[in-house]
Amino acid sequence: MKKIVIIPNTSKDPDYQYTNVVIGLLMSRADIRMSNAHARIGEHDKRITFCDEQSLFSGADMAITLGGDGTLLSAATAVSLHNIPILGINLGRLGFLAEIEPDDIAYYIRKLFDGEYHIENRIMLQADVMRNGESIVQFHALNDIVVSRASLSRLLNIKLLVDGHILDAFYSDGVILSTPTGSTAYSLSAGGPILDPSLDALLMTPICPHTMHARSMVLPLDRVYSVTLGEQDALSSTVTADGKTGIGLTEGDVVEIKRSPYTTKLIKIAGKTFYDTVRQKISERGINE
Asked: Which of 12, 55, 85, 187 is most buried (CB neighbours < 10 A)?
């Protein structure tokens, strides 16, 4: 039997209504795993194996998230490290990455077990915070790596280098380095273009640049990109990955970004193309809200 990890977002599904629907559909066809954090759903439910976070994905065949895109993004690093695919059920508002809407859960779970799906490998980015020539922390991101000011209302003096050669320098609130998947997220809000997720590229977008020339740039992924800050700016800045994890920077830190050795394997089952999603989720957003 397949081992399937279920990852619910309790702010989107507080009573486990949709989670229990998924469990009911899987119970006779898969071994179900959930984090110990969700043990209250049924501590004595023999349909579910509860695990700590370290062992949750070990030996699993796939993962299913219930929430919004943020729920899937939070799980993306863990599933990519274990090389297992992930299926998103959208309980949020936008649902650009999540594949299934709540009313269609039963239909698509049946298709999942019938093998009527394909997997898209999505590029990820790796970011290392370099301090005194050594990496002190490493992040992997499906959407983006963001270097930005923390709390002070002041512009940062940002310098961007490619393989050690300066590409651009500008004053801004920060800079977003995103994958094509992440081009529809923060980068889009900052004025960046939308990229087809099949492209092998990196997108650099300044955040509120105080200049007439700084614009988004589409760049090759086979390079190492470095972000450095002015002497005092690092003390009031942070680097974050997918908006979920991050670290404060200090003077002399360099953030190095390159292609991650990992990919996020998205289960595509609803038959929608990327362009269908752009039209439905962004172009028409607000018309029927």
From this structure: 187
